[in-house]
Specification:
Catalyzes the hydrolysis of UDP-3-O-myristoyl-N-acetylglucosamine to form UDP-3-O-myristoylglucosamine and acetate, the committed step in lipid A biosynthesis. The protein is of the alpha+beta class. It is built from 6 helices and 22 strands. Strand 6 and strand 7 form a beta hairpin.
Length: 307
């Protein structure tokens, strides 16, 4: 049986919010079984908490923001991707600000933070959401769908209106090892021509050459890409983070074209809608089946302490 996992010990980091531009300190704390991912705003009176669930998505404009009772936490997707990619089920995130620190614009620093904390097995079964029927979300120029398969796979295509970038496509079988080696380090990106407009809208105020790929008319302005197709790989990272708002690993093949947070979270809400239609005592519906046994091969990318 596959068990839920939490952290062995508390770890902290400091950084700057990508959009707020404000300094923030974050602590990751061990959490009880079945508690999931919970954010806590310790800078506010009574230190309110926000569970990272689909019902709490409040904004997906250039980042994923969750909120409850008027309290928000912004830009959670890179951290959520690190939780998904390392197999961390239950964690309490304490923040002394409204936004997760950007770090280097990828999920890699968060993966290293989780590795420093170590993972602890909990004596409760980990469940998976296995897709049984195709679910499709489409707009005029973009689409995302998930179809049945025996493991989590992602096929992602982006068409960039830039001569140095063009079309980029990737296909991954998502495992912990592959996430750590080929996805986690891929950074967020922005175009130089858009910066003034973003700032006018109070977005990207903390963006810099240190935490984003910046693209000008001639191409990337701040050094070499970590992968030739780093930009579309980062879209996969964002997708995995948004998908983890479901609280459990998903088993299926996701095919995305020109998507982003808007379509990612629409897919998440649609999957959650099918789950909500289930009878509470049931483990399956016509579209999704809940599994309480491992569907993926175990990975050894993180050391797991015995319970």
């Amino acid at each position: 049986m596959s068990h839920q996992r939490t952290l062995q010990r508390i770890v902290t980091c400091e950084g700057t919010g990508l959009h707020t531009g404000r300094p923030v300190t974050m602590a990751l704390r061990p959490a009880p079984s079945n508690s999931g991912v919970v954010f806590k705003r310790i800078d506010l009176p009574l230190a309110p908490t926000i569970e990272a669930i689909p019902a709490h998505i409040v904004d997906v404009n250039h980042a994923t923001t969750i909120g409850k009772d008027g309290v928000k936490v912004r830009t959670i997707e890179h951290l959520m991707a690190a939780f998904a990619g390392t197999g961390l089920d239950n964690v309490l995130i304490e923040l002394d600000g409204s936004e997760v620190p950007a770090m280097d614009g990828s999920a890699a620093p968060f993966v290293e933070l989780i590795r420093a904390a170590g993972l602890k097995r909990q004596m409760v079964a980990r469940t998976y959401l296995k897709i049984k029927e195709r679910v499709v979300i489409e707009t005029e120029r973009s689409s995302i769908q998930i179809v049945p398969s025996e493991r989590l796979q992602v096929i992602y295509t982006m068409r960039f209106d830039h001569p140095a970038l063009g079309d980029q496509s990737v296909a991954f079988d998502i495992t912990r090892e592959r996430f750590a080696e080929e996805i986690a380090s891929c950074r967020t990106y922005g175009f130089l021509k858009d910066i003034k407009e973003l700032h006018r809208r109070n977005l990207g105020l903390g963006g810099s050459f240190d935490n984003a790929i910046v693209i000008g008319d001639g191409g990337v302005l701040n050094g070499d890409l970590r992968f030739r197709d780093e930009l579309v790989r980062h879209k996969v990272l964002d997708l995995l983070g948004d998908l983890y708002l479901l609280g459990r690993p998903v088993v299926g093949t996701i095919i995305a074209h020109g998507a982003g947070h808007h379509l990612h979270t629409r897919l998440v809400r649609e999957i959650q809608h099918h789950l909500d239609l289930e009878h509470p005592a049931s483990v399956r519906s016509g579209v999704i089946e809940r599994w309480a046994r491992p569907l993926l091969q175990p990975e050894r990318s993180l050391e797991v302490a015995p319970s």
